[in-house]
User: Fold these one by one.
Assistant:
Number 1:
Amino acid sequence: MSNDNGSAPLWFVDALAAPVETGRTDVDGASISYRAWGEAGRPGVVLVHGGMAHSRWWDHIGPQLAAGRRVVALDLSGHGDSDHREDYSLDAWAAEVLAVAAAGGIDGRPVLIGHSMGGIVSFAASHLHGDRLAGVVILDSPIRDLTPEELELRIKAVSNAGPPKVYPTVEAAVARFRLVPPQEQAEPYVFDHIARNSLKQVDGGYSWKFDNLRMGREHRRSLEEMRQRCPLAYFRCEHGIIGDALFAQLRNQFGPDALVTELPAAGHHPMIDRPLAVVAAVRTVLAAWHHPRR
């Protein structure tokens, strides 16, 4: 079912039209931006984006999780509309996630939902701050290895990447927007929305929001010895970046109490090619955790 937005289905248009609040909070000297849906003062979830991404990757997902709960999506430092730092670390990003949960109006311990690099941040938070979390849901994240987005940034950082490229128009920039890693399937209306909201206006035109000068230089602490200290659900994407051997290692690392399964027919960026499957999967996990078996 479509409408005046061209190929976009009604559910997508309705999600973007849902009431959203924006805010900022200071975390260790950096101003961190966030978006929030649903009633403040409710239990809720924090949506944690991947590398080079931002909170608006969740614009069509967040409102569909907001029935009876508060949903907050943040821009990690160095991404989106948040401040850049001199150095980035999992510890700092985990602290930002917890701070945004409180500042964004979530009552009690939040559930973190992290994609790719955001899954790494969420898993680190489950180890470092598990007693402050109700659970973590991870989407196609390697946990121990660099994600493709991080690897690309690290290659650019090592090669002394120059200032961000400036495009003369929004359309010229959107035409150059690429997913890392590439994937053939993507809902065009989601892709276009994310691409346009990845830009900021600068002298001479438009550029990408993420910090390409410092991102990729951060020092990654080992995750192999980490163990989650709260409930955990892990979804590998069928056509994502997690091979069978790594999937088996992660299953072993998470232990028998974790939910570990697969999103069928999904690429590494499931909110772009299988958004309703992501919503259904997350809703199912949240319902199971809210009403555990006796």
Number 2:
Amino acid sequence: MKNTVAVLALSSFFAFTACKKNETAGTAGKTENRQSEKFVVDSVKVDDSTRITDSLKITYTSKLLVFPTLKDKTLLDSIYFQDKGIKDYSREGIQTYLENEKKSYFTSTKKDNEDWVSDITYAQNWYSSSYMKLISNTNGYMHIQYMGSAYIGGAHDEYGFSERVFDLKNNKKVELKDITSMPKSKIEAILMKNIDKINSGTSDENGEVKNSEMLLVEKIPATNNFYFDERNLYFHYSPYEIAAFAAGDITIPVSWEELKGTLNTEFKERMKIK
């Protein structure tokens, strides 16, 4: 009888232990799943061309990033703010969107220029190009740079940049007010003071040309086209926005020291600004 009780007790112990192991394994599995759901970035690119005439070729190129682990629609709408036609943010959905955009570009370019395009007698390559580039993802802040360029004849092509930072912790685009309470007028004064801190690389027969020598505006606006790192807040300006085309795009830094006393507390802590 004692042996029977001992066997039953031992069997119960092993059964209990096995259950605990299964529970532990299940918990570990859930933990692994949570850990595996890390920030993932993919991309889709469409690059194609067609001929309108013997002399004119048009090319469409676009590359969009894909974020499989981001699910918040408001955040995704903001990330793809230039591409309002996207309804499905999966890789397949974005691929379909780009293919449709390519067809639309080819069709509209042919139609809009059919009355005179046959007059082009020398080889030309018109194009539309756009790219998304992940610059950084630090402290829950994701910085994406958007670049677009095009050529439809004339002296030179046109291009421009958009910089956007997204708060992945709060699922939103970062606004200037999320960083600093300094009035824009004071920031604009700092921008004017710092205009030559990062040279655009422009030069002439006399050597380097300063950004300030090519300005087209009396006041540099504090726009939403900004990003930041551990040292500075940066404002990025496309050609013609504040200076002549020859100046190219211009980036102006504003240090955290210059914004001292106005920085948002949460932002300052997350960026570890002293």
Number 3:
Amino acid sequence: MIKFLLSLSLLVLLACEKNNAKTMMSVDTLTYLALGDSYTIGEAVPLSGSFPHQLRNRLQAKGLHIKAPLIIAKTGWTTSELEEGIKTAAVQQKFDIVTLLIGVNNQYRGESKTAYRNEFKKLLETAIKFAGGQKAHVFVISIPDWGATPYGRESGRDIASIATEIDAFNAINKEETQMQGISYTDITPASRLAKSDESLLAEDGLHPSEKMYFDWAVQLEPKILKGLK
């Protein structure tokens, strides 16, 4: 009888552990979609050094289980091109975390701010849909100032004008983001530190280094942890 009871207890314990494992997996395995351009794919740095991957690593260190981020982004994309890229990708699933960073190429090409506002609004609505309607799971990041880089200084353009235009585009995306009650992370002031600290830049003299992307991940981490509660 004692042996029987011990065996029964062991079976019950193993069953509970198995069920707990399944529950933890279903609760803690999260998905992440990153939408953007070269700043999202991490142009000129290893994929592991991009901000979505560094962010995932930081969140996993906090005990969250997150699948490798799905990235819909390409160097040079504007808002309209990101919209087309999303359509082409034809992703149907919902995500627990969605980040959006887009607009530098609109500014670089001298595109209309009115068009940017309209297209950014659509992309923000798309991001919300990808998050299953949960606005707390969407995170917008401001546009860095590429004029603060060696590439910017050698571009022949007026650096002050670039900064002013970047600020104008960011004013638009910030206003639209806040109107939706969505988290906004302003990394632009820190991006301008590259003027005096080139360790913040990749070897191409234009895109952020892993060090700068790490700072973005650090800023995003507590906001995402709060949004997922």
